[in-house]
Specification:
222 residues, alpha/beta, 8 helices
Length: 222
């Protein structure tokens, strides 16, 4: 992982046996299969959102496993790539919650640059095989990220969509931080409580209550 202000906070992980095994696993997977996202974008969330600037965390699970979609930010796709179903529901809820028209691009980079850490719990996946890199060690690494964010003194709002994200709630220091949770935005579960949950306005209200500036959730509609 290239140098960022995350590096000293996570450096201890790189000496752990699981990390060597994980890196070897991903290396072998890339030799034998197509793996997403590209190598240089695996840690994009950490590069785009420095530790010091984190205001909110949105937790995803796997990167997208279709060609050209994943670029290292959960739920986000590259500019020009059609929004997948979960992302369409996120944009529909954003329109209901805040009145913003769905953007022309599915890239969430603008959120990341404002302090929204878009973190998948597994950071790589084999092409067209969902969950193929789960249980190989990424979860231990991303749990460490959640742990160090939870140690921040300024309030961070954790957005937990779906059961796998909500299982991380016990790791969060709720005396300092806040949680916004609901069912997952996927078409299978969005109608069970994600749609209508107003996560974007809730995040901003919780930030402002703690004296932090809100997120401008608007994305380009050009």
């Amino acid at each position: 992982m290239a140098k960022t202000d995350w590096n000293p906070l996570l450096r201890s992980e790189f000496n752990q046996p699981y990390w060597q095994d994980l890196m070897e696993f991903v290396h072998q997977e890339r030799r034998q299969h197509q793996v997403f996202p590209p190598h240089e974008e695996v840690f994009a969330a950490l590069h785009l959102t420095p530790f010091e600037s984190v205001k909110a965390v949105i937790l995803g699970q796997d990167p997208y496993h279709g060609p050209g979609q994943a670029h290292g930010l959960c739920f986000s796709v590259r500019p020009g790539v059609p929004a997948p179903p979960s992302l369409k529901n996120i944009f529909a809820e954003m329109e209901t919650d805040l009145g913003f028209a769905p953007p022309s691009s599915g890239s969430l980079t603008a959120w990341a640059e404002q302090g929204v850490l878009l973190l998948n719990t597994t950071l790589t996946v084999r092409a067209r095989q969902a969950a193929s890199h789960q249980g190989k060690g990424w979860e231990q690494f991303t749990d460490k990220i959640i742990e160090v964010v939870s140690q921040k003194s300024d309030r961070v709002v954790f957005v937990l969509w779906g059961s796998s994200a909500r299982r991380k709630k016990p790791m969060i220091d709720l005396s300092r931080h806040a949680v916004v949770e609901s069912p997952h935005p996927s078409p299978l579960s969005a109608h069970r409580g994600f749609l209508g949950s107003q996560p974007f306005s809730k995040v901003n209200r919780l930030l402002e209550e703690a004296g932090r500036s809100p997120i401008d959730w608007r994305l380009s509609t050009e």
